[in-house]
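idk why but the lab printer keeps eating my pages so im just putting this in chat instead. protein + uridine-diphosphate-N-acetylglucosamine:
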Amino acid sequence: MDSIVVQGGGELRGEIPIAGAKNTCLKLMCAALLSEEPLTLTNVPRLSDVATLTTLLESLGCEAALLQEGQSMVLSAAEISNKTAHYDIVRKLRASFNVLGPMVGRTGEAIVSLPGGCAIGARKVDLHLTSLEALGAKIELEEGYVHASAPNGLKGTTIEFPFVSVGATENAMCAAVLAKGTTVLKNAAREPDTKALADCLIAMGAQIEGAGTHEMVITGVDSLHGTTHKVISDRIELGTYMIAPAIAGGEVELIGGERALVASLADKLEAAGIEIADTDRGLKVSRKNGRVKSVDVRTEPFPGFPTDLQAQMMALMCTADGTSVLEETIFENRFMHAPELIRMGANIDVQGGIATVTGVDQLKGAPVMATDLRASVSLILAGLAAEGETKVARVYHLDRGYERVEDKLSAVGAKIERVPE
Ligand code: UD1
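predcted complex ->
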């Protein structure tokens, strides 16, 4: 397995194109199962997670064709020939659990492996299942698989989520678009990915009001048709590359970046002393004066600070002037990057869901390893600011969610390369 090696020091200058959003694209791909007609996606990110989900969709009978070197994809689910989503694939990619809602909505039946836990927490699916039950599906658990059936179709209802879940909101929305009658989703996720999924479903003929707000009203229709849909920019990739010049110094323009996608991060970076400006093509981020100032961060559902940027922000705070408190409220075990950053000389104290970070004058390069995607990239960011060499092992996590990370960072002057282990 490859590693990424970073030689720290040196400012970043230039531009980085932001890819299509992984989390949006994966849910749009699942939505292709809702129609007999093809769904064409453009601005598709070239990521291993996209390839994994393509394999799953193909196993269900969906035809997939990649165009323009993988940047466009046509998914055609004229027929769903197999209703079982196997553990072998679902365990690799939790988002594949989101084939459940579309399959039950369209065919009245689905057998989907439970995704299991993962490094960042238990990540239950109870809300996915209770919302499908509320829509009239019978749910049985057998040998690690969810059997969902609704032979007479789903029926609209009111579902109030006890807390915000992105995946459960999206699964319920996809199930409800073909249900009979009206479904109201209360305390729904407001993430841009969820709104983008609703926009695509509407373009396919669904009737959805209130996407992007706490309450969505979905009026079921008989069938959906095909469409062509552009995947929005990846706000987590954008946020990660906004933090790159903040930690390394310099000025980077993020092509395709939009402040509205990352407003909570942009506010925090500005409070830390980073300059952010809108440009014709995206956002320009610069660190002109010395060290960044410490800021406190609490992760929350959108529009709050994203949990998927917490690790990267922690890397930045390791180099800040002062002490910052980072509170993780979404996942119970999402500080695995802290011990690795400590190996690089960081001063971090973790107590439960709270990390207290006191900035140090200089991080030091070290061999490090991370067990999840965002943690891995936080170590690369730390490596940009560290003295000497940082070697990040287990690169497959990065390839799940970052398109050519070493190419994008070396294009702005970082000394970074991929090496075989
Ligand atoms: C999605 C994102 C992920 C992001 C997360 C939170 C995708 C593919 N992934 O994950 O990158 O970090 O949103 O913004 O879109 N929960 C339950 N029961 C459920 C569902 C969730 O207890 O049935 C809990 C989870 O364990 C977690 C919290 O709710 O603690 C939020 O999870 P959720 O919003 O569902 O995250 P995902 O959709 O899995």
